[in-house]
């Protein structure tokens, strides 16, 4: 899951990033409305947290532009403006929810979870593949009704592969999806995480194969390949 945080206060932005990583989600941050729009043009985000008080463009203008460009990811607006008309305007322009500052991180996460659970959301919270069920909100994985613990990166990898089941995902695409632009990622981080995830799935009896195509990428099959 990848989330864009558009907030001009660095301290608030960092707090939001730390909170969103609990999903787990990788986060990109922008203090500029124009840069935020550019990031949305080159990155597939699952959700955007948008502050209205930006230094270059008003957040409502950013929202209007994103919706005009036909981006359908959920947008949660953050603002110090408590006026009801501002809320109505934001919702009419395509915001999915509205949170007035100051707010609690717990409420922010609850609202974000609710948005991601909505039908039609690209980052739906429940993923099913083969004999597994993965709940992204609770980070709970079931294989044949038995729970299996996965780390943050393993959950992010598995959820991305499930959404692209049967399609080869390149290492670069995986890296772009899982990590923010500012994250320092070692060259073999994904390879190690894939190896660890595959071992856990095999031991738990998953009815599909996570296959590495050397020099190409990774693919999730529906069923295990048998000799």
Note down, in words, how this protein is organized.
The chain has helices spanning 10-20, 33-42, 59-68, 84-92, 105-117, 152-163, 171-178, 189-204; strands at residues 2-6, 26-30, 47-51, 75-79, 97-100, 126-129, 132-135, 140-143, 146-148, 169-170, 210-213, 217-220. The protein has two domains: 2-117, 3-Layer(aba) Sandwich (Rossmann fold), CATH 3.40.50; 126-220, Arc Repressor Mutant, subunit A (Orthogonal Bundle). A five-stranded parallel beta sheet has the order 2-1-3-4-5, sandwiched between helices. Strands 6-7-8-9 form a four-stranded antiparallel beta sheet, with helices on one face. With 227 residues, it is of the alpha/beta class. It contains eight helices and twelve strands. The mean pLDDT is 82.
Quick summary:
The protein is an alpha/beta fold. It has helices spanning 10-20, 33-42, 59-68, 84-92, 105-117, 152-163, 171-178, 189-204, and strands at residues 2-6, 26-30, 47-51, 75-79, 97-100, 126-129, 132-135, 140-143, 146-148, 169-170, 210-213, 217-220.
The best one-word shape is elongated
Could you give the order of strands across the largest sheet? 2-1-3-4-5
Q: Write down the domain tally.
A: 2
Give the low-confidence spans: none
Helix content: 25-40%
Counting H and I runs of at least 4 residues, what is the number of helices? 8
In the CATH scheme, the class of the largest domain would be Alpha Beta
The overall strand count is 12
Class from secondary-structure proportions? alpha/beta
First-last Cα distance = 35 Å
Largest sheet: 5 strands, parallel
Strand content: 15-25%
Order of helices and strands: EHEHEHEHEHEEEEHEHHEE
- The whole-number mean of residue pLDDT values reads 82
Q: Can you identify the CATH superfamily of the largest domain?
A: Response regulator
Report Rg. 19 Å
CATH architecture of the largest domain: 3-Layer(aba) Sandwich
Q: Could you name the CATH topology of the largest domain?
A: Rossmann fold
